[in-house]
Amino acid sequence: MLKPLSFFRALTRIQILVLLVCLFSNVSLAALGRSGVHAGLGLETSSFLKTQTTRGTNVSTAVAGVSAYGNGDSSWVAWGVDPHVYVFLHDYDSIAPEAQNFYIATGQNISSHHQFTFGRRYFHSPLLLDEWDYSQNLSLLNQNTSNITATSVTPALGSAMEDRWQLGMWSPRFLWDPLRIKQVGLTGLHYNYNSKYFQALAFGTLVSIPERGATMYESGGKLKSSSPFFTPFYERVKIIQGEANIRYTLEEPPLDELLVNPAGMARLRVGKMNSGPWISGAYGYMPMSQVSTPFHYALYMNTQSVDVHVHPQILYHHLVGGEGGWSEDFFRVWASVHREVPEVKKLPSDWISANIGEADIYSGGAEFNLNAHLAAQGSYLYVDEAQPKNFQTSSLSAPLASRFSYKNAWQFGLKLHGFSSRLFSNVSYVNDVDNKSTLIRFDMNYRFKELLGGDWLIGVGGDFIESETSQGWFGKYKGNSRMIGRLAYAF
Question: Does pTM top 0.70 for this prediction?
Answer without folding.
Answer: yes
